[in-house]
Amino acid sequence: MRARLAVLVALVATAAGVGVLLAQYLVVAHLLDAQVRTVAVGSGDVTGVVVGVRDTVLGGALAWSLAIVGVCALLAAVAGWWSAGRSLSRLRDVTRLARATSERDLHARLDLPGPDDEIKELGDTIDAMLARLQRGFEDRERFVADASHELRTPLAATRAALEAPLAQGRFPDDVVPDVRRALAANARSAALVAALLQLARGEVDPVACEVVDLAGTVEAVLDGYAERVAGRGLAVTVDLAPSVVRGDETLLARAVDNVLDNATRYTPAGGRVRVRVGTTDGRARLDVVNDGPTLTPQEAARLLEPFHRGGATGAGGHGLGLAIVRSIAVGHRGGAEVAPAGPGAVRTTVTLPLADR
Length: 357
Description:
The chain has nine helices and seven strands. Helix content is 63%, strand content 13%. It starts with a helix and ends with a strand. It has three domains: 2-100; 155-203; 207-353, Heat Shock Protein 90, CATH 3.30.565.10. It is of the alpha+beta class. The longest helix has 57 residues, at 44-100. The strands form two sheets. A five-stranded mixed beta sheet has the order 2-4-5-7-6. The protein has a two-stranded antiparallel sheet with strand order 1-3. The protein has helices at residues 2-42, 44-100, 118-167, 176-200, 214-223, 226-232, 249-266, 297-301, 321-331; strands at residues 210-213, 235-240, 244-247, 272-280, 283-291, 335-340, 345-353. Keywords: Kinase, Membrane, Phosphoprotein, Transferase, Transmembrane, Transmembrane helix, Two-component regulatory system. It is a multi-pass membrane protein. This is histidine kinase. Its main location: membrane.
């Protein structure tokens, strides 16, 4: 871009110089022609000499004009290169800041120097936008901290209320297994709350997380739906191939659980659910196809939006399950989508990068 601006300045300067010198050449030629006519009227013997002088002067003027135009064009190109460099250096500052900015570091500002021109106006606008984003993320951090306290406090209180009597042997023997299951569920809920809050803060780093076999996770989660599947008469087919990914095991299990919960909840009684895990193009892929209403691509995609449940308002749930699935997948550098799988079927797909071996 700098070179293009320099060439443009040189061309404009050259065109202007040529125009001025051409006008000057025509004026000089006109004046000399007038002198030639005057001499011709007075003395024919001198006319040839004057014409020769005129031609010499005009030829020299043309040569010098072309040389001057060339020098001016060169100087204009140098000046254009220097001026463009100064202007574009501020745009490079904008580019560097944009590349370095993330939600974890919104404190940097451009504060562009230079004249009060369009580039400075752009820099000031970006600075104002970053200030608004910083305030927004700081508000979100405060909300997450408050939510963390409000969610963990009842879980901790419940756990303490169960652990103390259990340790003191105050529960009847036939109740102890139920209490232990409640404590295990409490621990899972606490881990899930911590993981979801970590996800909300944008602190999930798949590279720093553990290695997880997606197929094994799906198999373990699917076992928990055996009672629902049998009670509703669902025909579930499973095709699981080892697919190792790297991520937060609690969050990935929650994503799988939400997908399977959605499929087994909204499939009509006696319907079919097909679960497949495999790899494609260097990514692990979970596909769950279940019987359901015939949806357009737009209607299916909206199922990933928070609080959107399509037309299944009587099947329970809050419309957050698939939205959480997408957030977890994106947090692990993957993706999630819902699409029609033919008439009367819906496909939910989750993709995740395979772990480096």
